[in-house]
Amino acid sequence: MGSYSTTSSSAQNSPKLVFRQLFEKESSTYTYLLADASHPQKPALLIDPVDKTADRDLALVKELGLKIIYAINTHVHADHVTGSGLIKTKFPGVKSIISKASNAKADLFVEPGDKIYFGDIFLEVRATPGHTLGCVTYVTGDGPNQPQPRMAFTGDALLIRGCGRTDFQGGSSDKLYDSVHSQIFTLPKDTLLYPAHDYKGFTVSTVGEEMLYNPRLSKDKETFKNIMQNLNLSYPKMMDVAVPANMVCGLQETKSEAC
Hints:
Layout: E1 3-4, E2 17-24, E3 29-36, E4 43-47, H1 54-63, E5 67-72, H2 84-90, E6 95-99, E7 108-110, E8 115-118, E9 121-127, E10 136-140, E11 151-155, H3 173-184, E12 192-195, E13 205-206, H4 207-213, H5 221-229, H6 239-246
Parallel strand pairs: 1-8, 4-5, 5-6, 6-7, 11-12
Antiparallel strand pairs: 2-3, 3-4, 8-9, 9-10, 10-11, 12-13
Organism: Solanum tuberosum (Potato)
Domain Metallo-beta-lactamase: 28-197
Protein name: Metallo-beta-lactamase domain-containing protein
């Protein structure tokens, strides 16, 4: 297990979390900006950045006086190209992060139980495969100096009143059901859920809401598997472009093993 951090002074008070939810309309992707404003360096990270909106996101980072240190992906996306590589070209000190199980390139690889520190705040890594083999959910820490209520960034594993498809990239409805129920639905019911996408205008849900009202994952496993097997979804239009690019941080050519 690993711990990834910046140099941090002892927190005298609870860390002040800066949080912004950003939207890319073409792929209906949410990017999340988090930072510890109480830390002298104001370290920040972006979860699931998109190449088309990277400049917008970096402009916001600058306006808020933050220091971007990590560009993080929940999984290898099939519907858009990640902005991780583009962000790294503009800010060479930024490190890209993805799960080791994804088999994609990055500067840092995380596994279940790892913690990603930005200042005195941290994200806990939980493996939530099923949409893809390498999906992870990032959860804010449990502790007196961590944001409350807790927040979970679920990628495509759990969407608001839905979930990611399981018919490509090593997907498995069986694994997805177990992932969500064991790694997300076991969090406190007031935990705020932030997905990688939404197509109906929803922005946030809670564990308690999804346990009750998710039309797929509130069912028993066999019913869920039957639902997923009969979605009859079309082939993702960006998949043949996005997946190869996202295996290398959104950059088709890299000069080293880390992108």
